[in-house]
Amino acid sequence: MGIEGGRGDFEWVYNDQPHTSRRKEILAKYPEIKSLMGPDPQLKWVVSGMVLTQLLACYLVRHLSWKWVLFWAYAFGGCINHSLTLAIHDISHNVAFGNKQARWNRWFAMFANVPIGLPYSASFKKYHIDHHRYLGGDGLDVDVPTELEGWFFCTPLRKVVWLFLQPFFYALRPLVVNPKPVSQLEALNAVVQLVADIMIYYLWGLKPVLYLISGSILCLGLHPISGHFIAEHYMFLKGHETYSYYGPPQPHHFQRRLPHGAPRLSKHPWQQTTACEENGSRVLRLAAAAYLLGARAVGLCL
Ligand SMILES: [Zn+2]
What we know:
single chain, mainly alpha, two-stranded parallel ribbon, binds zinc ion, lipid metabolism, Sphingolipid_d4-desaturase_N, FA_desaturase_dom, Sphingolipid delta4-desaturase N-terminal domain-containing protein
């Protein structure tokens, strides 16, 4: 679509979804990658540290004025929460405790979800399976923007608005595109989150609760740390639906540091990923954000 932006159709392809072919290609080229697959023993400690840091921040912001609560939500808390959402992605692939302890991964994801302020880890897991299985599949992969989104958010200004609202689209799109019955894990996730929010409110008041929730919303939308979404989710060149991201905040991105395609080797500890980086992988840094103004607001996503 190029830098002009516009209202063209989605890019429709009818071949196999790229994760499968990329996985085969990468494993054929670098078979040693298999030896790096497995649970990440550090992940649970890193995530626990982030959750505790956010609880400490809740305590510290309890008496600040609202403007400073929002400032710290955007500048600090939201960054940790953004990182936690990416950790929850990895945990959904059982990276924290391995495939044999799948339940532990589900419960741990609920713990990692606590600072996000709103329950989503169980729903994410439910839909993320489809994302990998049917990447880009119409009506199946709920990460793909709807036709209405593609039609409406077609100018630079509207695309910025879309970016700002991105977390809402992620949360609500599944209910429109592919609604599924609520699972027991989702109900448990909601109860755990509600109890955590009430406890924080009871201990330190409303400001810490809004610090957490507003940070999540702000830092999953129009925020530098969300630059990887742009690199991963938008089509800049015809035929290249997704890109790997190697921008400055990538250490916060856990498994997302992997070249696109390698996350399909879904049990890869993130700290081993430098061993997997392919020479010549397409690199799109945060500067891509400016490019977004002209790129399609729709496309396949990581
Ligand atoms: Zn995934």
